Every structure is written in structure tokens, then in C-alpha cells.
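tool_call: predict_structure(chain=1)
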Amino acid sequence: MRDLPRQSELIDGALIFAAPQTRWHSHTVSLLTAELRRQAPEDLDAIHGMTVRLDERQAPATDVVVVTAEAMRRERPDHYFFPEDVRLVVEAVLPDSAIRDRDVKPRRYAAAGIKHFWRVEQDDGRTIVYVYQLDPATGSYVPTGIHHDRLKLTLPFGIDIDIDLTSTGTLRRPPGPA
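tool_result:
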């Protein structure tokens, strides 16, 4: 998949090409990548837009992924990670990717044994993060929290992120009626 356009992914053996990004999506992915990199312990790192090769028919492109520092240093392969490298996957939902980000990808990530998954959505201008953890008994994700404005967690490591993009100045609300 190295010679395909950026943000191409393989889902159930079919190539999927992503639609153009929105400003909200771009700002959200940038903020989460930067904060996860800054707050991650030394043995972990975060990167955006990388593929996780789950198996021969599944190589989804992630919005943000937290992986081992060892995986980041590995020379080959340099264009995807393996499930065992991954500690967290983050998907920011857009209208054209909603079914994949809410249903298809989480099921594939869980089946591959990735322990932590976040789904990020926008509702009436607010960013909401839905946090999931893998239940080892069922092999499925279970919700552990819904976060508005601030994301404060202890797993997969200590995290404290202001996700209100309007208060951080990343996105500004349009001025109200005068």
C-alpha cells in the first residue's frame, strides 16, 4: 500500500480512499497527536495518519495511534505498525467515515487485541471523546467514559487534555448576533 494515495486503507479486502479533511478533524487530530506525544511515557510515542496492518485483508489508516518507542525506531516496515506495537488507536469521526469509525474499525481493532480505543466526535461545535477498553473475556470494547471539554485518564497512561477546541483557540466559534 506504499504507492497508494495518503489516507488509503484496506478494510475487508477493499481499498478505501478518504475524503478531504475538515478543519475540525485536522485541528482535533493535531491537538491529540501533540498532547499524546507530550504526555506519553518514554517507552511510547504518538503519530497521526499511520496504518495498522491487522492481517492480510485489514490495514486501516488511523487518525492517531500510540505505539511503542521501539516500533517508532524500527526501520522496516516504516509505513505501518503491527497490532502488538499499538497501545491506543484514536479515530475522529467524519460523516463519510462514520460507519467505519463507529463500527467496522473498532471491531477489527478489538479482534486484533488492541487494548484501548477512542472515538472522537463533534456535536454542536463541541468535541466529545468516547473512551473504550478491551474486555479480555469477550474480545470486544466496553465503554469506560464519555468526555466533554477535558479528557483526564489514567489508562493507557496518565493523560490530561483540554479538548474544548474553542477555549484553546484552535477553533473559534463564529460571533453571535450583535
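agent: The longest strand covers residues 126-135. Proceeding to next step.
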